[in-house]
Amino acid sequence: MKLFDIPPVWTLLFCAISFLLAHFIPLWAFDALLINSAGLVLMALAVAAIIWCATWFRRKKTTIEPHHKPTTLIVEGPYRLSRNPIYLAMLVFAFGLALWFGTLSGFLPVVALQQILLRRFVLPEEAGLRAAFGEEAETYIAKTRRWV
């Protein structure tokens, strides 16, 4: 695995871009305590969700690293609700950060991040699950949404 080709690095990169856009090209700025506070709450919830998801990888003794062959198909906990709860939490974190920044331009990188996560990680991981777990993965994929 390449050091910089992991979802947290992509997420941090797009959060930095969001910061730069929000502060140097602030399209439609809004400064409302309730909205900004909601952003902080979303970021906290996203971090908690990532930790919850990571505990399932440890519990099932399988790799959390993308592009590695999984040894266990996790369908419990947050994985009952979404096939990609960690990526979803990363997007929620980036969205919350954009709310906290308080400008429309801060949201633009969130859309790009979703596409990077989908194409670079989600789709290849789904193919890997199908290859590793066959019909069990197909059943899981058919009954559980990709995001929410």
- 3D shape: elongated
Residue runs with pLDDT of under 50 for 5 or more positions? none
Q: How would you characterize the largest beta sheet?
A: none
How many domains would you count in the coordinates? 1
End-to-end separation in angstroms reads: 28 Å
Structural class: mainly alpha
The proportion of residues forming helix, as a percent range, comes to 55-70%
Give helix and strand order, one letter per element, not per position: HHHHH
Radius of gyration from CA coordinates: 16 Å
Helix segment count? 5
The overall strand count is: 0
Mean pLDDT value: 94
* Strand proportion: under 5%
Short description:
The chain is mainly alpha-helical.
Describe what this molecule looks like in 3D.
This protein is mostly helical and 148 residues long. The protein has one domain. Helices cover 66% and strands 0% of the residues. It is built from five helices and no strands. It has helices at 7-24, 33-60, 85-101, 108-133, 135-143. The longest helix is centred in the first third of the chain and has 28 residues, at 33-60. The radius of gyration is 16 Å and the shape is elongated. The two termini are 28 Å apart. The model has no long low-confidence stretch (mean pLDDT 94).
